[in-house]
């Protein structure tokens, strides 16, 4: 199976996991000129931007380690554009979560990192 198909399969698995645990997923694979966010949804009153990472083994590092500062910055930029384009006001709290799938184990890290402000 190629990596794109595997990624889609794991994102679907993550979406089902999140929905089973109370999240209302409203967007999948949201893209703009800056990048992509795997899943966007609402949970516990927050608009949540979710990065899904999969690793078969720890050989190349853990799935959680793959969401480094550079990836976080890109996610925040995409999220800023999403909020602007969808007219999401500042009165709605936002959160950045990571769903790490390591082999068969799923770990949902809520509030995995804080928003990184970028001023143009």
N-C termini distance? 40 Å
CATH fold naming = Trna Endonuclease, Chain: A, domain 1
Helix and strand run = HEEEHEE
What is the mean predicted local confidence, pLDDT? 89
CATH architecture grouping: 3-Layer(aba) Sandwich
**The level-1 CATH class:** Alpha Beta
Total domain count: 1
Total strand segments: 5
Helix percentage: 25-40%
Assess the beta-strand content as a share of residues: 35-45%
List low-confidence stretches.
none
Strand order of the largest sheet: 1-2-3-4-5
Rg, nearest Å: 14 Å
SS field, number of helical segments? 2
Structural class: alpha+beta
Main sheet: strands, sense, barrel: 5 strands, mixed
Shape annotation: globular
Description:
It is built from two helices and five strands; from the N terminus they run αβββαββ. By secondary structure, it is α+β, with helices and mostly antiparallel strands. The protein has a single domain (3-113), classed as Trna Endonuclease, Chain: A, domain 1 (3-Layer(aba) Sandwich), CATH 3.40.1350. A hairpin with a 2-residue loop joins strand 4 (93-102) and strand 5. It starts with a helix and ends in a 7-residue tail after the last strand.
